[in-house]
Write a structure and sequence with these properties.
Layout lengths: L2 H10 L4 H13 L5 E4 L2 E6 L5 E3 L2 E5 L4 H21 L3 H14 L1 H10 L7 H14 L8
Parallel strand pairs: 2-4
Antiparallel strand pairs: 1-2, 3-4
Length: 143
Amino acid sequence: MSFRRFGCTVLQCTWGILQTLAGGAMFLVLIRREHFIYRGCVVTEWKRPQSASVGMFVFLSDSLSGQFRDDVLIHEYGHTIQSLILGPLYLPVIALPSALWCMTPRFERMRRDNGISYYSFYPERWANTLGEKVTGNKPELLQ
């Protein structure tokens, strides 16, 4: 493990402890699913249409494939960087607004009816930007 990844893990387990504990609990519930490590994060494939990041844990929809899957992984990794930056503020500033934007039928209709990109909302746009900067790969299909 590189020094940078070790430092990120320590930060997630201290500054980002609230979301890391929540992600760890989700990981334990899904322990029998497929897992892999991506840049120091534990990625679990799950049977949901949405993907999510909770501290240093990423839950990736198992229905994704190809370039779109790679782009979603970069995006979700961007959320883990937000967790590192914001610490305990991540939950109210990023996680809650993101979850509401993703799963509220009113917002789903608004995006669909007005042709608004899911990634135009600030937590999603910022996650794409951070994921691109840190990985050096642009999530091109997520615009």
